Amino acid sequence: MTDRPIKVLIAKPGLDGHDRGAKVLARGLRDEGFEVVYTGLRQTPDMIVTAALQEDVDVVGLSILSGAHMTLLPRICSLMRERGMDDVLVAAGGIIPDDDVAALKESGVAAVFGPGTTIAQVADFLRANCRPRD
Amino acid sequence: MGENRKSSMSEGPLATRGEAMCDAALAGDRRALAQLLTAVENRTRLAEVAMRRLYPMAGHAQLIGVTGPPGAGKSTLVAALIAELRRAGRPVAVVAVDPSSPITGGAVLGDRVRMQAYAGDPDVFIRSMASRGHSGGLSSATTAAAAVFDAIGFDAVLIETVGTGQSEVEVAAAADTTVVVEAPDMGDEIQAIKAGLLEVADIVVVNKGDRPGAHRTAGQLHAMLADAPHEARSGRPLPKRPEVLVTTAVTGEGVADLLAAIDRHRSKARSSVGDETRLQRAEAQVWAVLSDRLHERIRQIEGSLEDGGARPATAGDLLHRVARHELDPYHAADCLMDMLAGKPDR
């Protein structure tokens, strides 16, 4: 069935206790017809990648507001490549300076969504860019 | 293989891919296992190839169902049970079901939040599933997913249902042992004697044992369920007499006792009672696939009728006529049965 829902992992990497945005996005994507696995706060890269692998998600969405994105996000992307998950789309959101976006994209993050992004923009991007499902 | 369904098996590359995926999963490749679970969940042809190989290898794992109302602490208790099972050195898998939206088909699967401590342990595998319109507390693929874990060699499979009300009893057939989790002050003795969920419990757990009322609730449940006199009468099923336990899942208190009770029940369930459960499970699985196949066939008939145009009614026409109250549902179902059997119109 090609009309099965897109499965998304929403994760909060690192020491960052602010998950309102992640929860709002999880709820919003639910309303857009996505199946959203939410994993909670204070996740290590290994926890996130293990969850993404076990859940066989199409997309990993990372919410980060702590400033540690240049360390954590490339680490998650490289762990995913190590485990053969090259076909899984990675997107990030939160507080990430524009100057860092190019480097993050270089490391494997497909998109960075800053404050003001609408749920619809995120949903449309994920639908357009996630792997084909069978 | 494929004596009966040559059409689906003629897709050679698919069979090869399915076999390769099974090989990898059996050799310990967790990504291959995850992909098999996706195939099973989406009920693809790949899943059929895989199940033909894996189903005969299953039947050894201990299947433990955990059910109960939303917020009673099912996920936290599952996490505590994982810890207990791992202490005993047993590989453990979890299938955790959360509800799909009836409006958009989307879902928030939040059970993992309580089960975060095991990322580094290759012998723990947790999989969330959306119920996808299935209403019995599980998803239609839950039992098949448990069979995949079983075949791969997970010694215990924990099946967590959606938050249930009074009557989502499907898990009782999916699991060898059904644990019903209640929160303190769930109600009085009248709630305890109502038909439904509590009747299928092999073990009743009052969780949040640190809260006031937990032991009183356990006492009431014990009096009504376990202590009640049960008179054996020929031809009438004997009610279950579940053990009633108190746990505090967040601290792990009482969880070792719970696992011991589950194991005690398992030894009992290896008797004829267990055979009945396995038969129910087999029936549920076959009916689920049969219902899929029927839907598929009916859609195909619709197509061929539209092409041929020999008959006045397609399946879609019938549904529209029922919606307009021109035809009653019984008559429409009989027409579909006749169409499936290739009989002329009624």
Greatest contact between two chains: A-B, 32 and 29 residues
Cα-to-Cα separation, first versus last residue of chain B: 39 Å
CATH class category of chain A: Alpha Beta
Any idea what the shape of chain B is?
globular
Task: Compute the CA-based radius of gyration of chain A.
Answer: 13 Å
CATH topology of the largest domain in chain B: Rossmann fold
Number of helices of chain A: 5
What is the CATH superfamily classification of chain A?
Cobalamin-binding domain
Model regions low in confidence, pLDDT < 50 over at least 5 residues of chain A: none
Give the CATH architecture of chain A.
Answer: 3-Layer(aba) Sandwich
- Overall average residue pLDDT of chain A: 92
Which class do the helix and strand fractions of chain B yield? Answer: alpha/beta
Instruction: Please give the CATH class of the largest domain in chain B.
Output: Alpha Beta
CATH fold descriptor of chain A:
Rossmann fold
Would you give an account of this structure?
The complex is a heterodimer of chains A (about 130) and B (about 350). Chain A is built from five helices and five strands; from the N terminus they run βαβαβαβαβα. Chain A has a single domain, classed as Cobalamin-binding domain (Rossmann fold, 3-Layer(aba) Sandwich), CATH 3.40.50.280. In chain A, helix 2 (about 45-55) crosses helix 3 and helix 3 (about 70-80) runs parallel beside helix 4. Chain A has about 130 residues and is of the alpha/beta class. A five-stranded parallel sheet of chain A has the order 2-1-3-4-5, sandwiched between helices. With about 350 residues, chain B is an alpha/beta fold. Chain B folds into three domains: about 1-55, no CATH class; about 60-230 and about 235-270, Rossmann fold, CATH 3.40.50.300; about 285-340, no CATH class. Chain B contains 13 helices and eight strands. Chain B has a seven-stranded parallel sheet with strand order 4-2-5-1-6-7-8, with helices on both faces. In chain B, helix 3 (about 30-40) runs antiparallel to helix 6 and helix 12 packs antiparallel against helix 13. The interface between A and B is medium-sized, with 32 and 29 residues.
